[in-house]
Write a structure and sequence with these properties.
The chain is an alpha/beta fold. 38% of the residues lie in helices and 20% in strands. 1,4-dihydronicotinamide adenine dinucleotide binds next to α7, α8 and α11.
């Protein structure tokens, strides 16, 4: 499939009239063909108009048709073949195996949402039948279902060019909810975005859906994104990226005459707590495993373990020695963009020159665009006194905070901002200590894990990839897993509507065969 550099607006592919830009080969910094042209305000307007036009038809597609559409998108992505992986490797600098795995995750995610749609449970159908005889007042017939919120703007992430981009988790969950999507391609991988966008476009056509169900807009700057979020037809936003970008979109969305929700996944340093018995028994092993997680994908994961908390002592020394030894042998790896590499180097330099911080280890030095791993340490007092030490350094850098005792670990956790994940390394003798930390962690993070690291999010029904601000803009939700669909739904009640006018999910005969809540109790279809 040739990459043309066009915007995909409904069923059309049209060259933008805005500024031109080229993708950059991550490893060399060289420009790649072809030239892309940014969408114009008229393109944004048309994509939003088509999305609004498609909305009422698309949101009432049958559950089976919508599920088949999601599966068709998955098949179309696979149908691109190796060309997708090759282009994505060039644009992102990520290795083949990682991108093949990420493609599998993207396709699996779409198929999982197809299953969620077929199941129909997300509609949360509730029926409170009328009670005309109730005293002192009769009760009306009340029924509730969830409906799609409207067209959703999705911002692809730089660090997951497939699973968190054009047809990634935000798009899959929005389409599953019944929302048309207008995607804004990340300028770090426009060719990958176009290939995936064309696959979605083809699936829309193949399934006979209105063309406005999906559009894809290009821009190397921020004006298309700003226009998209400001457009009155956009009803919600999905975003993964920097805190600055996410906050800018939150502000743009809040400043509209009709504000809309922004679901932004932003920064996180993902504390890892090493508890004493585990540290004593296997500190070195944990250190080696940590070095692997830290440097995965050149550290460009928002789940990257950026902060280690432990009580000082021989166990922690063993961890540090083993982690440092492993890191000094790890090759530097190409980062996603020159900008991200520059930001990483600046973050590392700030830690290196901070008088309260000691450099424990650096990975092997690399080429111009390669990130060199870094491990630092500081004391709890210094960490608590300097808020810059708690800022995300996006890449393979981490800070060990030496604590006096468990109470100090708890005090540090209490002071952290919201996080996506927290990991506890523990043995049975650490259970009491862990029990004391769990309430703090529950308040601070979206996912708590034991004897592992947060990198590599499982896509499933019980996953939360979210967390309190600034990990995300709205800690009540997740951007990964089936619960993500709820970001793009809202409940509507139907009072005393005749059966003929009720949506199928709520009709007396329950034609969709849904589990429903009748008077608050779960009732099986046919019961
Ligand atoms: N925590 C995380 O998951 C991630 C964090 N980052 C951090 O973000 C930095 C920059 O990386 P990017 O991927 O380029 O993220 P970014 O936040 O700068 O950009 C992401 C997307 O949002 C758009 N955007 C950004 N600011 C905007 C604004 N004010 N108005 C409208 N649209 C806007 C961009 O055009 C792009 O499409 C990295 O160096 C890293 O520090 C990046 C990726 C993931
Ligand atoms: O660790 C993962 O699998 C996902 C990480 C993520 O969501 C991100 O880096 O943006």
């Amino acid at each position: 499939m040739p990459i043309t550099g066009e915007n995909l607006i409904g069923a059309a592919a049209r060259r933008g009239g805005g500024e031109t830009f080229r993708a950059v080969e991550a490893a060399t910094g060289n420009s790649l063909e072809p030239a892309f042209a940014a969408a114009t305000p008229a393109d944004v307007d048309q994509a939003c108009a088509l999305a609004a036009e498609a909305f009422d038809t698309y949101r009432e597609t049958s559950l089976e048709d919508r599920a088949r559409f999601l599966e068709a998108v998955a098949e179309a992505i696979l149908g691109i073949g190796d060309e997708l992986i090759v282009r994505c490797m060039a644009e992102s600098g990520l290795p083949r195996a990682r991108l093949e795995g990420e493609r599998g995750r993207t396709v699996g995610q779409l198929k999982m949402f197809a299953g969620v749609v077929r199941d129909g449970g997300f509609l949360e159908a509730r029926v409170d039948p009328a009670q005309p005889e109730r005293k002192p007042l009769p009760r009306p017939d009340l029924r509730l279902r969830q409906i799609a919120v409207g067209p959703v703007a999705v911002f692809g992430a730089s660090n997951f060019p497939l699973a968190f981009s054009v047809a990634g988790g935000d798009t899959a969950s929005a389409l599953a909810a019944g929302c048309p999507v207008v995607a804004k391609a990340h300028p770090a991988h426009p060719g990958t975005s176009e290939l995936v966008g064309r696959a979605v476009q083809a699936a829309v056509k193949q399934c006979g859906l209105p063309e406005g169900v999906f559009s894809l807009l290009m821009d190397a700057g921020i004006s298309v994104g700003q226009a998209l979020v400001a457009d009155p037809r956009i009803a919600a936003v999905g975003f993964t990226g920097s805190r600055r970008g996410g906050v800018a979109l939150m502000q743009a969305a809040a400043a509209r005459p009709v504000p809309i929700p922004v679901y932004a996944e932003m920064s996180s340093i993902n504390p890892v707590v090493l508890l004493p018995a585990a540290l004593e028994a296997r500190g070195r092993d944990i250190g080696r495993a940590f070095a692997g997680s830290l440097t995965l994908g050149s550290g460009q994961f928002c789940t990257n373990p950026g902060l280690i908390l432990a009580v000082e002592g021989a166990g922690l020394d063993g961890f540090v020695e083993a982690a440092s030894a492993a890191l000094t042998e790890i090759q530097a790896a190409t980062m996603l963009t020159p900008g991200i590499h520059k930001a990483y180097c600046a973050g590392v330099a700030a830690l290196e020159t901070n008088p309260a911080v000691t450099t424990l280890a650096r990975g092997l030095a690399g080429g111009t665009h390669q990130g060199q791993a870094a491990l630092f340490s500081t004391t709890a007092d210094a960490f608590l006194a300097d808020h810059t030490l708690a800022e995300e350094v996006f890449g393979a850098a981490s800070l060990v905070v030496r604590c006096r005792d468990l109470a100090t670990i708890k005090a540090v956790l209490e002071r952290l901002e919201g996080q996506l994940t927290a990991a506890l390394h523990l043995d049975e003798a650490d259970h009491d200590a862990a029990r004391a930390l769990l309430p703090v962690l529950e308040r601070r993070v979206g996912r708590i894990l034991v004897n592992g690291f947060g990198t590599g999010v499982e896509v499933g029904h019980a996953m939360v990839h979210g967390g309190p601000y600034p990990a995300t803009s709205d800690g009540r939700t997740t951007s990964v897993g089936s619960l993500a669909i709820h970001r793009f739904l809202r409940p509507v009640s139907y009072q005393d509507l005749p059966d003929a006018l009720l949506p199928a999910a709520l009709k007396d005969a329950n034609p969709l065969k849904l589990w429903r809540r009748q008077d608050g109790k779960a009732v099986a279809p046919g019961a």
